[in-house]
Fold:
Amino acid sequence: MDLRSRRSLLDATWKRYRQACKTAKTRILNEFCNATGYARKYAITRIGQVEECPKPKPRVRRTRDRLYGPEIMKVVEKIWEEAGYPWSVRLKVILAFWRPWIRKR
Structure:
């Protein structure tokens, strides 16, 4: 059985399978496995993956409120530039050393 015919059989089978009772599911699964040559667990997985094509909702990105104002960010950017553009972990330590300079200005 080729891939297209397996897919069409899967499309025809999954709705019946989902609505059936336990004994009917066993019978439907046996028929599906015999026709496609799939192992039972793989067939169960394939039938479980099929859905009725509901389009997924777009993920809504949450925005954070700003913690620091623009004047504080200008000072931090100036220190970041003077320190040679370190990454965030080093910048955090450097800010502690620059605190006396920051307070003077």
User: Anything to note?
Assistant: The two ends are 78 Å apart (CA to CA). The mean pLDDT is 86. The chain has six helices and no strands. The chain has two domains: 3-49, 70-104.
